[in-house]
Amino acid sequence: MEILKATGIEKQFRGVKALKGVDFSVESGEIHALMGENGAGKSTLVKIITGVYPQSAGVVSFLGKQCSFRSPLDAEHAGISTVYQEVNLLPDLSVAENICIGREPKNALGLIDKRAMRERARKALARLNMDINVAENLSAYSIAVQQLIAIARALDVDCRMLILDEPTSSLDDNEVKQLFTVMKKLREEGIAIIFITHFLDQVYEVSDRITILRDGQLVGTYEAAKLPRIEMVAKMIGKTADDISKMQSRPVRKGNLGDVVLEVRNLSRAGMINPVDLNVHSGEQLGFAGLLGSGRSEIAQLVFGVNARDTGTISVKGKEQSGSFWSPRKAVKAKLALIAEDRKVTGIIPDLTIRENIILALQASQGIWKTISPKHQQELTEKYIKLLRIKTPDGETQIKNLSGGNQQKVLIARWLATSPSLLILDEPTRGIDVGAKAEIESLTQDLCAEGMAVIFISSELEEVVRDCDRVMVLRDHKKVGELTGEEVSLKGIMKMIAG
Amino acid sequence: MKKFKFPVRYVPFTATVLVFMAAYIIGICSFKNFGSLRVFIGLFHNNAFLGITAIGAALVILSGGIDLSVGSVIAFTGVLIATLIGNGVNAIWAILLALVLGALFGMVQGILIARYELPPFLVTLGGMFFARGCSYIVNEQACAILNDPVFNFIENKMEIPLGKGLSIEFIEVLYIVLLIAAILFTQKTHAGRCIYAIGENEFAAKLMGIPVVRTKIMIYTLAGICSAIAGVVYTIYLKSGNPLSCVGLEMDAIASVVIGGTLLTGGVGYMIGSLFGVLVLGLIQVLIMFQGHINDCWTSIIVGALVLAFIFMQNLITKISKRRTISNN
Asked: What is the CATH number of domain A260-498?
């Protein structure tokens, strides 16, 4: 039975069309994946369905009735509940309150009946096969459990359709499994689920149908079982399957290594990394592989002087850098560049324009007295917008208005402007879409070809395998080995990580 | 056996109670008569208006806001009532008018803050100057309330005699009743829990379908009413109104709430804490009074040190509870 039908949905934001006539329908008792790159219009579509924004044109009907919700609460009353990417609950209130707030059971005096509330919370959680102490503060539980609690809250009302917006991004494998079990159970109960995710494996594991959006337009809705993976990716980034297979089978580059750019001996800091040696040559891309917390980012931070090292020497182009005074400022002078992970916190300055964000590092390395002329600034900005294919109306746009992938490109541009001899990229592809990932990957290869040394840190092993000439594998704050050339393979790395 | 862990969230409040008890015991050991019932009742009698102000301040702070206008509203209320009575208006009407104006004043501040999303600090700073100015317009000088039948009735008839010339008077009863109502309101009602939700994470509260704008307007309206009631109590307490009174009282109220264990960033704390915050403040004053030869300004110094100590402790506790969460995962 068709539970939701949206036809011809359009949405304009200040003249920009975010959705251009999208048709979308969901049936009860199905898990429907909504896929697309960042900025494809997934969130906008969902927000129109749940009443966060009004649509500019088009009709949404739910349970056969035309509807226009004015708020998420309105939609919830009608039977559409949403669980957002970041857990939007209240850590210092009890689990029971988090599930029931806004609709607490009351006693004869009109006061909240805490016992009934806990009972209801327990029931809601039991539906998800969970048995936890509901009187405990929410913050006592892991993110995964909190996510399930959020789902329990969503189901506590008479919910007919559940929207899960990137629910798995902060969960580990076991937790994802737990979530999927719950999703399958709900599907059997006849609830429609819209599932938004970046992880392709997960889509195939649970989805019945897949709808793909691209640039605010509907690409199509497909049966999951009949859509090969490679074709889905191709549709998402608007390429053919052939292009993709070419992209993935990059021949391993050989030889042509230049001088050693960075040489690190015996580098360590208590609690971060045990003594480690490494070197990178110009024209080489060195990968760090290992599980989260294995010490990958920590090495990058010590090399760049963010944290002081306990022991070890760092030499840049054969020149040893003194230990105690090593700082990011000196690292920049020595032509190193670090694009740290979590760009929102440590990278972009959201309210500055693209131009201002790009010239930051260059200006800092020159000192504040030596100004960069407006003309030169503009040239730089235009050059990098073109070179990195940054999608923006112009260089004077505030960076916060760009999508994640384009923000990342601006950060890369910032450091390229300082013409570094070593570029360290820490998780440059996290949270950005497939197309931008591919562009960033090919960009680092071009840089290597031009003689820059690159250290590439990523949790996605496929990327490391695809892009790196040499891979250093870390486990529990220790370097456990190195793979070179032909040895670089998924299996090889996994074996090493597993030990 | 599950190991018993003292819930971290009770620590600030417990600390306040301990500080209060420690100060009280020090007083009893050092001074004769310090432990008498008269001193204890006096503590409530002399601080009832501050306590009622602190109830309003606690509501606002729990929601993550701040209200700087309370001192001025109290002064305005007092002057208005005293002046109206001086001009022959019935005291009951004067008090009712003051309460209505206080509620309206709070509501306007609430609308500006919630509906137009202006920062509470600035809105209530504006409100502070505005209400202070209004009190001077009503009357430039202090004026006493002489021989008013209603006030005489409250003073002479509405009291619970305890013998030996001691009695519990109207204003302390009013304070305790309001406090109990406020505790029930914050712990047991939907609207009360919404205050906590908004204080903790306004955006999440909105997504959870909590009427954020409406609740915030209600909070500031209630704070306005609390200030007006505190103004009435203050007028009964001093039997006069003065446009210059209660300058800086908002800071006393905020200090009481913070010492009472409420997080200034909102969402965490208990209404009952404000009682102990007020009592600690009052007790310090009494201690210094008993001491006799210490300068009164030491009150401020000790209160200042306490506020800092409590903020420091809360910061520590927040960090510890975060660490516990992480180790639980």
From this structure: 3.40.50.300
